[in-house]
Amino acid sequence: MKHMKVVLCKDVVSLGGRGDIVTVRSGFARNYLLPKGLAVVETEDNIRRIERERVKFAAQEKARKKDLERLRDKLAEMSCTIEAKASEEGHLYGSVNAQMIVEAFHNEGVDLDPQWVQLDRPIKELGVYEIHLQIHPEIDAITKLWVVEPDEE
């Protein structure tokens, strides 16, 4: 078995992070990592280039994280309302899902990614709910959601 050293251009699950130098089987490198742009062959030029990119990426990630922390703080101070028809007992005729929550916050001027919404199960009753959002692997946000019946006018 022939092995070769490569420098990872992107994070690869169970292999390493951006900029890491790893030893892999040459077939895996030639057939998967190199064609997909996940790695480059280890040379002095490639190591320097990837290191420059890693520094640049780290600065971008730091700025992105700061923006997401501001978003977390904003979400903690706000709430959103979704109108849904319900029975006399308060059971919804349907349910509130992550996409509906994203749309409700979009109407309030806050754009969320549907994948951030962490619902244990769909909301099926009227009431006030704490919604947990995983907006970054290191940043969680909590906001309030009101599920109310529409006004009949």
Description:
The protein has three helices and nine strands. It has helices spanning 26-33, 44-77, 98-107, and strands at 3-8, 21-25, 39-41, 79-83, 91-96, 117-118, 123-125, 127-136, 139-148. It is 34% helix and 33% strand. A hairpin with a 2-residue loop joins β8 and β9 (139-148). It is α+β, with helices and mostly antiparallel strands. The chain has two domains: 3-64, Ribosomal protein L9, N-terminal domain (Ribosomal Protein L9, domain 1, 3-Layer(aba) Sandwich); 78-148, Ribosomal Protein L9, domain 2 (Roll), CATH 3.10.430.100. The strands form three sheets. Strands 4-9-8-6 form a four-stranded mixed sheet. The chain has a three-stranded antiparallel sheet with strand order 2-1-3. Strands 5-7 form a two-stranded antiparallel sheet.
CATH H-level superfamily of the largest domain:
Ribosomal protein L9, C-terminal domain
Q: Round the mean pLDDT to the nearest integer and report it.
A: 91
Outline type: elongated
| Terminal CA distance | 76 Å
Main sheet specs:
4 strands, mixed
**Proportion of strand residues:** 25-35%
Total of helices = 3
CATH topology (fold) name of the largest domain: Ribosomal Protein L9, domain 2
Number of distinct beta strands: 9
